[in-house]
Amino acid sequence: MSLDRIKNDLDVANLIADSVESSGIKPGAKLVLAYSGGVDSELLALGLSEFARQHHEYRYLLVHVHHGLSDNADAWVGHCESRATVYGLPISIKRVVVDTGPRKSVEAEARNARYNAIKSQMAPGDALLTAHHLDDQLETVLLALKRGLGPKGLSAMGSSQVFGKDKQLIRPLLSISREQIEAKASAVGLVHINDESNSDDKYDRNFLRLEIIPRLKARWGAIATTASRSALLCAQQQAVIDDEVSERLPAFISFSQGRYSLDLGLLGLQSDNWQSLLFRGFIEQLGFAPPSQTQLAQSLSQLLTARQDAKVELRLGDLLIRRYQGRAYLGSVIDEKCELPLHKCIEVDGSSLLDQGAEVSLSLSKHKRLSITKQNSSDRVRLPDSTQLVSIRFSVKGSTRCHPVNRAKARELKKLWQEYGIPPWERERVPCIFYDEQLVCVVGYWIETRFLCEQDELGLVFTSHQV
Questions:
Q1: 9 is an annotated ligand-binding site residue
Q2: Nearest 5°: phi and psi at 287?
Q3: At residue 200, does pLDDT exceed 80?
Q4: How far apart are CA 340 and CA 425, in angstroms?
Q5: Which residues, including other chains, have CB under 8 Å from residue 49's CB and lie 6 or more apart?
Q6: What's the CA angle centered on 205, arms 174 and 203, to 5 degrees?
Q7: Are 453 and 459 in contact (CB under 8 A)?
Q8: Is 1.20.59.20 the CATH number for 257-336?
Q9: What is the torsional sign of CA 73, 78, 83, 89?
Q10: Which residues face 434 on adjacent strands?
Q11: What is the mean pLDDT of residues 232-244?
């Protein structure tokens, strides 16, 4: 194809218009371009400027991320700011620090830092535009094969997808080859950045781009197109699987006391394939990255074959998988640390709780607070005497005798933990309220019979909440 033909045929503004329309992006949304200044994003920026002149119903922003990994990074900032002026588009420069420590993937860390920086410039309903193209798709498929991924990984990149919880990501150039982009850029005399790191084949994508894909294309000229077609077929099959998993999974999941759990007894009745699909779906639904197939199989084996009373705790990166009373629970290693109480015992000035209209808020952990309010309705604890010491305690002895409201007899605390289905790792984080040495309530679970207010009597309500 001649340069003149490419110049006339490749209309990036129209590609953007098609992507915006098919993605249902609403007027008033901000279209944010991940703008590196490389030839791909430069051509997309040019197309966005042409689109913006015809579509005033949207807002626009170029975001250039300064990673600090190249000696030329400052010069690139100058280039991008200058070109943004030419395009008539606003630009934001975001400086990030990339973790290049041992056993870290610079590519992955830079990508995470970049996307986090871009998200900070976006609001719900906004859309991110990236300049991924047909050859990027081929690279992604080959990397998925190298990692042994299944249909979801082989689906590679979609032309549009959810970005975060309430934003979108669109790829207007995904059907366009690198050769077409470079020819178009040359035809219109586009000035762009050449990142020297693109020639370093120690990075997997560069190795494929420099060494492997040219040979594949020399043998099979349409391989990028056919690989993209395979990715689309995998995406269609994965969509059917996801729909079926979404329909079946709720029957296996329960939610109680702020925790989701998976019924392992019911899961064990399914075929091996469905066990894997449902367990992976449970992990993903709770927002965790899915483990490898080997890790998944080993985790399922330990969870499903363990004795009823066995303690099972598995750590896969940041993911914690635990078994209790025939159910699987998921947690984050980082969140677990943040949820640990700041102190084993917190004392409260009892006189402050007796003040009319007083409300007390206490920090229990990095992300949890306890509110103490005075009320004369709902279930509440009677007020302490002016001489009593009020304390919030954690890790209370299991032998402590308790007599919850609506129970005929008292029981040991460890028996009540089991009765209420509170997993062992959660018990040390449940605040227990004491007046002197007398337990008066276990926050979120029960009030002791002797300390329950009657009728219109003024009392205290203890509520723990995340912050």
A1: no
A2: 90, 15
A3: yes
A4: 10
A5: 87, 88, 89
A6: 155
A7: yes
A8: yes
A9: positive
A10: 391, 439
A11: 93
Q: Is 38 within any annotated ligand binding site?
A: yes
Residue 39 marked as a ligand binder: yes
Kindly report each contact of residues 282-285 with a partner whose C-beta sits within 8 Å and lies 24 or more positions away, as own/partner: 282/249, 282/252, 282/253, 282/328, 282/330, 283/319, 283/330, 285/249, 285/253
Residue owning tokens 């870290």? 104
Q: Looking at the DSSP assignment, which residues form a beta bridge with residue 411? A: 402
**pLDDT value of residue 274:** 97
189 known ligand binder: no
- Tell me how far apart the alpha carbons of residues 444 and 291 are, in angstroms, rounded to a whole number: 33
Q: Is 425 exposed, middle or buried (0-12, 13-18, 19+ CB in 10 A)?
A: middle
352 and 358 in contact (C-beta within 8 Å)? Answer: yes
Alpha helices in 254-349 (DSSP H): 264-267, 272-285, 293-305, 333-339
Strand-pair partners of 360:
372
Are residues 358 and 348 in contact, defined by beta-carbon separation less than 8 angstroms?
Answer: no
Cβ(66)–Cβ(94) under 8 Å? yes
Residue 59 dihedral angles phi and psi, to the nearest 5°: -105, 160
Q: What is the C-alpha to C-alpha distance for residues 282 and 250, in angstroms, rounded to an integer?
A: 9
Say which residue the tokens 């979609």 belong to. 158
Residues forming a β-bridge with 263: 327
In whole angstroms, give the CA distance from residue 153 to residue 176.
Answer: 21
As a whole number of angstroms, the distance between CA 30 and CA 126 comes to 5
Q: Which CATH superfamily includes the segment(s) 3-240? A: HUPs (3.40.50.620)
Beta strands in 249-405, from DSSP E residues, in sequence order: 253-256, 259-263, 312-316, 319-324, 327-332, 345-348, 359-365, 368-375, 381-382, 390-393, 401-402
The answer, yes or no, to whether residue 3 has pLDDT greater than 60, is: no
User: CB-side exposure of 254: number of CA atoms within 13 Å?
Assistant: 13
d(CA 153, CA 59): 33
Residue 307 has phi, psi (to 5 degrees) of -60, 155
More confident residue, 420 or 274: 274
> 44 with 128: CB under 8 angstroms?
no
- At residue 342's C-alpha, the angle toward residues 337 and 345, to 5°, is 135
Q: Which of 401, 432, 433, 405 is nearest to 415 (CA)?
A: 401
Task: Name the residue among 216, 49, 225 with its Cα closest to residue 137.
Answer: 225
Can you give the pTM of this predicted structure?
A: 0.77
Whether the pLDDT of residue 110 is over 90: the answer is no
CA angle 397, 401, 404 (to 5 degrees): 115
Domain extents for the chain?
3-240, 257-336, 345-466
Q: Whole-angstrom Cα distance, residue 466 to residue 433?
A: 18
Which element (helix H / strand E) includes 440?
strand 438-442
Q: Which two tokens stand for residue 346?
A: 């917190």
